[in-house]
Design a protein that fits this description.
Elements lengths: L2 E4 L13 E3 L4 H9 L7 E3 L3 H8 L5 H16 L1
């Protein structure tokens, strides 16, 4: 059983920060990934959560850049 956690900002109606996915991503999440592919970089296997959360605050890390891209996407939606 594959378990992954989303560590990005909440996307209304799609996913909340901290959501755990079991055995794959829902279709609604995959649709958003079509508009903002970086969101997939914020779905982390549970065994890597600690390091990935630390990387969120490291300027220039994949996680940090991806988080910012999702925020930019959300600003464009509103």
């Amino acid at each position: 059983m594959k378990q992954e956690m989303y560590i990005g900002p909440s996307v209304p109606g799609i996913v909340k920060e901290g959501t755990v996915f079991i055995d794959g991503l829902p279709a609604s999440f995959t649709e958003v990934a079509g508009s903002v592919p970086a969101i997939k970089n914020l779905v982390i296997p549970l065994e890597r959560i600690t390091g990935a959360k630390q990387a969120l605050s490291e300027q220039g890390s994949v996680e940090n850049v991806s988080y910012c891209k999702v925020l930019d996407y959300l600003k464009g939606v509103k």
